[in-house]
Recover the amino acids of this structure.
């Protein structure tokens, strides 16, 4: 059976709405449970993601999986993971504002189908786009804000944690806060 999300994915895989389509190997649509109440949003695919077609599958992704596992979350079971832009920016540069704008309708549609109760932004780019343009992630990570009935929080990007391991305990605290919020809202899936 084709669910809403699968139909959307099939359409997204054809997308040529911005210049990033030219150099991609795969459109990286997203991974996870379409019924998840928790959505994680990164910046955009890197090299490994572009080659495999799945978000966060490089070293950063392995670290993300560990952080998720520590609070009883699993990328295929009870969260949904995607990115602001679905195609890899060349040399992993930040996605340009116009690329983010071009791609945002896909994220909005994913949001409309999944209807998460909690959104975790992975890194500065996602946090600035989804929470507020002047987000100071090193100061404000781990803090939940409610926006239109959805609880939003930003944590440090896994790639930043690999570059800067001293920030790992702070990120771990953010995932503990995420677990607390899930329990408080009673919105776990398939635990
Ligand atoms: N970094 C991101 O922001 N997203 C990915 O999917 C992989 C690395
Ligand atoms: Fe389409 Fe987004 Fe890929 Fe640009 S990055 S081509 S808008 S899917």
């Amino acid at each position: 059976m084709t669910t809403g999300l699968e139909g959307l994915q099939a359409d997204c895989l054809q997308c040529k709405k911005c210049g990033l389509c030219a150099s991609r190997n795969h459109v990286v649509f997203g991974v996870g449970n379409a019924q998840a109440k928790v959505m994680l949003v990164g910046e955009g695919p890197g090299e490994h993601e572009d080659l495999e077609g799945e978000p966060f599958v490089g070293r950063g992704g392995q670290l993300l999986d560990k952080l998720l596992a520590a609070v009883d979350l699993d990328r295929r079971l009870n969260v949904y993971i995607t990115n602001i832009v679905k195609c890899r920016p060349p040399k992993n540069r930040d996605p340009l504002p116009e690329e983010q704008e071009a791609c945002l309708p896909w994220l909005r549609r994913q949001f409309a189908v999944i209807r998460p109760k909690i959104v975790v932004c992975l890194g500065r780019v996602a946090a600035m786009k989804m929470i507020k343009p002047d987000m100071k992630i090193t100061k404000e990570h781990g803090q939940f804000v409610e926006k239109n009935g959805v609880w939003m929080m930003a944590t440090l990007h896994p790639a930043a944690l690999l570059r800067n391991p001293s920030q790992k305990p702070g990120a771990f605290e953010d995932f503990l806060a995420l677990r607390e919020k899930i329990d408080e809202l009673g919105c776990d899936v398939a635990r």
